[in-house]
Structures are given as structure tokens and as C-alpha cells.
Amino acid sequence: MRTELCKKLGIEFPIFAFTHCRDVVAAVTNAGGFGVLGATGFGPEQLEIELNWIDEKVGNKPYGVDVIIPNKYEGQDVRDPEKHKAIIKAAIPQRHRDFARQLLEDHNVPELPEGKPYRERVTMTENTAVPLVDVALKHDNVKLIANALGTPPPHVIKQIQDSGRMVGALCGKPAHAQYHVDAGLDFIIAQGGEGGGHTGDIGSVVLWPEVVKVAGDIPVIAAGGIGSGEQMAAALALGAQGVWCGSIWLTVSEAETSETVKELMFAADSSGTVRSKSFTGKHVRMLKNAWSEGWDAEGNPESLGAPMQMMVSGSALARIHRYPEQAKELAFAPVGQIVGSMNHSISSRNLLMDMVNGYLASTERLSALLED
Ligand SMILES: Cc1cc2nc3c(=O)[nH]c(=O)nc-3n(C[C@H](O)[C@H](O)[C@H](O)COP(=O)(O)O)c2cc1C
Predict the structure, then answer these.
(1) Are residues 113 and 228 in the same domain?
(2) Cβ of 226 less than 6 Å from ligand 1
(3) Residue 334 Cα: closest atom of ligand 1
């Protein structure tokens, strides 16, 4: 199981845990895997706090940070954040804001308390991601930075590689993997369409070997639909050097996922998700609910592009998070099809060890087939 990538990063198991929760990063890293903190929801100051906390917990063990710089979004050449925000706001039709508000009203989600207004912000852009990369690179234990939704800009790649860290990116198509190869990335995460969060529509078993072929000597990490050691064995058999899981860490005991959302996930089966643009303007696999169905229904306003739709949903999310029980039907719960196997809470360490044992059991089963 110690792939070349494991040796390069100095980790025991090639299991990468994408999570927004620092406790999960620390727990997975300390158990011999590799935690990756999704940083997009943090400002630079908060990220500094999170990384200091992780540094304290993991000793000298390595971990990673993930940002989102999409390859295409509205106003992407505008470097002044205030100017960019004004452009994005102007591109949002009132009809879309009204529709979002109506969905909340239809589900009796209260307004935010007086004196606690939501401050609109633009997220998932180069302007917001670059300061996060600057913070991450100040931390010696951060050995890897990943980017979602495109190849990072050349100056970001250079900055990370010059600092001695590995830089990589997710992809959902072989053509996107080719962009990553051409840009000189150090690893590629091939995410099949069954995965949670932003995702394409090619299934993992088809995508992984296609990306391995395009990547040549560059290590490929398989993502999308992996929740067990048996699935991990399949990914490694198809040429991946590791597995990158997101969904399964949402319901571990250390995760900060709200109890309401955890319950929804425990109850869902693997057909309970949908790929929908209704939250971010790009396809996200998430639990199907009244929000996704509202935006995706014919006759209703169509989801805007990125980052406008995220701005529309941002103010709704503030209310949804504040009143999780009332907003149950609208909860933003990105998760992959593996949700059907996420039925109870378990610690990160135990989940990781279950994966290792499942991997060993399946490779032994396969080896036994070779004996006569
Ligand atoms: C709740 C959630 C949020 C995610 N956010 C990001 C993100 O900000 N950046 C990123 O690179 N990937 C993100 N992803 C995708 C994961 O990195 C990972 O590729 C994916 O979860 C793998 O598929 P799986 O969900 O079947 O494990 C997210 C996934 C989930 C479930």
C-alpha cells in the first residue's frame, strides 16, 4: 500500500481526507493518512488560526490545504475585489434574489435576527484564493496544495513549487487532466461523477484509468465514490497511487456537520443525490431537496453562473445555517452517492483503519484466486 506518493509525502497509507473540519484533518493525519483542509470558506486570518491549531495537534506530520480557483468565472480578470463584487452584484437579476427569498418563506425559515445582517461576499475566485495560499505556505507541515475547478494560474503553481511543496488539481475529464499535465502539476486528482461537491458526469471506474493514461509519470489520486478499502483496492488496481475521499468524513464523530444534516445523510440512499448548479452556479453533487428541485424545475429562474449563484445562495445559507431544523428541506448538503453507505457515526481513526483492513481483505481475496 506504500505507493511512491506515500514515500514522497512520508505517510503510511495513501488515504487523503478532504474536509472543512480541522479536527478531521488532525485525526486522519495522526492515524497515518493525509488530511486536507478545504480552505475556501475561511478568510486568511481564520485560516491562520485553523492551521496553527492543526500544527499543534500533528507534530511534524504532513497535511494539505485545498483552495478553489475556477478556470472560468464572471469577471475573472478583475483584480480589485471591491470592483469585482460590484460587477457580480450587478449581474444578478432581482428575480433570482426574489426566488431564493420565496423558497425560504415557503419553508417558514425565519429572517436573521435584527442587528446581525448577512454581509455579502464573493467566494471561489483567484482574488480570494491567493491570500489563502500565502497563509498555507507559511506553515511547514503543509506539504501539498490542491485546487478545484481548474488548473491553478501559472504564478500560483510557481509560488507553491518554489516553496518545495507539491501542487495538484482535481479533474473530471481526461481533457482537463491534460491541462494539468501541460501546466506541470505534481499530482492529479481524478474525481468521478459519483463524488460529492463540484463534479463532472463521468463515472469513476471509467475516468480513473483514462486520467492515469493521460498523466503518464504524474501520480493520480482517485476520488469519487470511495468509502471502503474494497473501493480503494479497485482504485489502486486501476493505476491510482492513492484515494481522495470527501463525503465519508462528513459523518465521522469529529466532523462539525450539523446533527440535522448528519441525520439527513444517514437516512439517504445512494440515489438521494443530484448534480445541481443551484448553490454555486457549477454542478455540485448534493442531497436532492426543495432547494435543488426548486431551482432545477422548469419555469423557475435558472441557476446563474459562478460566482453569482453563490452570492444568491450565500444570503439564503446564512438563514439556513442559523435555523437548521426549520430549513431542513433546503439544507445545502454536498455529498456523493456513497451517502447510501454512510449510516452511522464512527471516529476518523476507526474509519481509516476499516479502510486499511478492507483493502487488505480484498487484495488477499484476489491473491487467493491466483492459487490453484
Ligand atoms: C461537502 C463537500 C465539499 C467539497 N468542497 C470541495 C472544495 O472546496 N474543494 C475541493 O477541491 N473539493 C471539494 N469537494 C470534493 C472533494 O475534494 C472530493 O474530491 C470528493 O468528495 C470525492 O468524492 P466523494 O465525495 O465520493 O468522496 C467537496 C466534497 C464535499 C463532499
Answers:
(1) no
(2) yes
(3) 1
Q: Atom 1 of ligand 1 has which residue's CA nearest to it? A: 334
Interval 313-349: pLDDT, tens? 998 999 999 999 899 999 999 999 999 999 999 999 9
Verify that 323 and 279 share a domain, yes or no: yes
- Count of domains in the chain? 2
Whether 183 and 40 share a structural domain: yes
Whether the CB of 200 sits within 6 Å of ligand 1: no
* Cell numbers 500544527: residue: 55
Ligand 1, pocket-test mutation among 15, 16, 18, most atoms within 8 A of CB: 18
- Please identify every stretch of the chain with a pLDDT value under 50, giving residue numbers as ranges: none
**Assessment of whether the complete model's pTM goes beyond 0.85:** yes
Query: Which cell numbers in the block locate residue 144?
Result: 501539498
Residue 335 belongs to a domain: no
Helix (H) or strand (E) holding 4: helix 4-9
| Residue 295 lies in domain | 81-118+258-330
Number of residues in the chain: 372
Output the CA–CA distances (angstroms, integers) from residue 234 to 209, 240, 347, in the order listed: 11, 9, 24
For 75-91, write each residue's pLDDT tens digit. 999 999 999 999 999 99
Q: What is the CATH number of the domain that holds 142?
A: 3.20.20.70
For residue 361, report the distance from its CA to the centre of ligand 1, in Å: 27
